[in-house]
Sequence to fold (191 residues):
Amino acid sequence: MKKKLRITFNAPLVLGFALACLAATLLGQVTGNSSTRSLFSTYRTSFGDPLMYIRLFTHVLGHADFSHLIGNMAYILLLGPGLEEKYGWRKLLAVVLVTAVITGVIHNLLFPYTALLGASGVVFAFILLTSFTEFREGEVPLTFILVAVIYLGQQVWDAVAVRDNVSNLSHIIGGLVGGGAGYLLNRKNRA
Fold:
């Protein structure tokens, strides 16, 4: 007898994050991007503005358009479920939140007149975190070195040589957060 095929909600955090990004992007499209500007992108404002602190977390949900969203969600949905299975949703949520805050704060300090939005910092955190899946104490995985050189090296090159609206700094910071989290999470798991 054949078993029925069923769809499972396999990675609640990752799927919830993707749905929240979709909702924020749809809302942005419906409101002519006013919701994106006020809630889902970060930029320097008065320290007395409570939304400034909220946007340090929510800017990773906003995307400029559906092409931007799809590019980020392809990586999130590819890498995230394995990471959520390995580390659990709480630790992965911590990686997302730390990445959001650090990229937001550094961006606001260095680029006060430019808005930052999108999950690409989280994508790079996931990419580097994934390269630590086979980490052992006292070793540095060659895959981590290669991924860091390829992905982060490309971002450094693009930051210097390419002029576009891509925040290479948030990619680099996200990668550093993911690499650091990979090292710390795996070191503690094996100690």
User: Anything to note?
Assistant: The chain has a mean pLDDT of 89. Helices lie at 12-30, 34-39, 50-58, 66-87, 89-110, 120-130, 142-161, 168-190. The CA atoms of residues 128 and 179 lie 5 Å apart. The chain has eight helices and no strands.
